[in-house]
Amino acid sequence: MKKNSIFIRLMRLCHLLYWLVGIGFRLHSLNRLAPNERRSVLQQMGQSALDVLHVELEKPDTPNNPHGTLIVANHISWLDIFVLAAIYPASFIAAKELRSWFVIGKMIENAGTVFIDRTNRKDIEPINAAIVERLQAGNDVCFFPEARTSLGNAVLPLKAALFQAAINAPTNIQCVVLRYYDAENKRTEQISFSGTNFFITLWRILSQPKITVRIDFPPLIQPTEQPNADRFTLKDQAEALFNQIVLSDSPNPERVLLPEEERSR
Q: pTM for this structure?
């Protein structure tokens, strides 16, 4: 039985490598496409990655928000990038380290990603300006306000800085709430990128017969209807929406990070 399990994982890994080769060729042509075509191709890439990894999306219809919406999501895994690409092919705000990731880095770079140095506070003002420019040009922009991955049982405190772009643009904020479940419909940490590396997470994902990601779209946060709201107010509203859904069926709300990560915070 164990040998069969290893064989299945290796077969799925070969399938993934075949997918990577095909996607690698398609990525080179993305820059030549018009924005709508690029969004469509990125959406197809995101969905095809999930298909290869046996990840199913469980969600209501994606809100028909106008282009130029600021999208914020809770962050659990590198799978989040493919999930969001499949439902909201947006420009990302991502840690600069992701630029060097094979396929994922190239994919989000071609989506118009702004790469940020999270250790440098001087980056915040130009990053917000870049976000505003993209939003005002009619592009959706997505970022992970926790600024790191959690185990998915709860939400880490959000960072307020990039919420300023929604005020400056001005535009609405759409929260996207992600929760991952295993084949037995139980919340799982196995897909988490917290406290581990890409290859360990990949092997754990390949080991799952099926993964389901439930996606919720809480009501829009509308800064234009809150004249006195600042970035901290918007951050608090988003955090409350995330927590309401993530904690609703969390098996272990206190287990947000691994113990060694807690010590390093």
A: 0.89
